[in-house]
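Schema walk-through. Below, the input block comes first and the output block second. Nothing else is stored per chain. Lengths vary across the set, and this one has 466 residues.
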Amino acid sequence: MQYYDPICALSTPSGSGAIALVRASGERVIEKCASLIRFSQPDKNLLKQKAGTLHLASFESDGQQLDEVMVAVFRTPHSYTGEDMVEIYCHGSVYIQQQILLALIHRGIRTAQPGEFTMRAFMNGKMDLAQAESVADLIAAESAAAHRIALNQLKGTVSDKIRQLRGRLLDFSSLIELELDFGEEDVEFADRSQLLTLAGEIRQTLRQLAGSFRQGRAMKNGIPVTIAGDPNTGKSTLLNVLLQEEKAIVSEIPGTTRDFIEDTITLDGYLFRFIDTAGLRSSEDVVEKKGIDRTWQKIRQAYVIILLADWQMPVEKIKTRFEEINSMLDNENQYLILVINKTDTADPEQLQEIKKKLQSFAPDPVFISALKETHLEELKARLKEVMHIQPPGEQEVIISSVRHYEALIQAEEAIRRVINGLQEGLPSDLVAQDLREAIHYMGEITGEITTDEILENIFAKFCIGK
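--- output ---
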């Protein structure tokens, strides 16, 4: 693919609207667009306009006025792509959008590939690869948390951290490579004890970054919360109340919910993805059994599990179900919250007695009435508490990209081998090989090391006009 030929695309969502934006970038793009732009002043020409200026003009095709537009001119390197760019703001008629694009294509400006504008920004050094990926995340953000992660990455927080670690390794690696060049003279330029200390620090940082991936992924895509429990404990009612809409069918008949129902709400800027599931019980009904199997599957996948129980259920039954679910969870990455429902039908003394009995296995249950919508704020507070949620903007560097996570794991493994090699006194050439590998994988994150296949896979996920 050529990265200098002129390209164009619609940068606003397809369909009609008040305003649409058509963007063009590349070699001689201002010259090609100039033949389509007419100003009210006869001597005014698009080619002569200053960079970063906006102009009212007429867009003409085949000698006929198509629309009255605003035109912005950007010149290399001071543009989004680092190339000459023209942005045409037209009325949002689908017909006008199509005719402008056709006119540009007829002037030799081809249609852009998905993400090609941002790819050119990366290729021209306007941003690194991690920042380029964050553009798509920023566009797709559905919550304040996802927005903050993407914005921080766009600002370079992830890149700066990786680049700092990689730079320190490069310094030592260059000294070891120098030793290899003078191998016959038995000289040592790199202090092994300092390198061992540095490798330990870098490995710890890489592990912390990789460890943030699960939370970052959940914050980006929505924190999955599975509502589980026996039939008729009020799971569907709770989902409807949380969503403030009749999403799930509510019935006194056990087994009404036979498949999971999913929807999202935002709490303090964080997207929570609530999943109502089939009631847990033994069943001979083939369809219901499949629904129950899916319930267990959703429990394993969830970040948070709400075990909902009716206050009138025997405490031993609640304990059995609680321990059954708790035994299958990853205690470091999953959270189980016991919620006692239908408290509107109990008096305070009964609830206090039940709470005492629950202390042996669930010291801090939440008591609610989904039907009467009481104490739901306590449940929401608990959700935020177990997720260790801070206000958006106060988080440390968080990884949310699968590609970054995999590269961090590979880099951390290479650093582990460096540490082992230093401790065992392995030859410099073997240590240098592992250092190169660690540096390579860290470079993949920022794009200092990359391939066409990686680039195509990343930018294919973008919308066409970005």
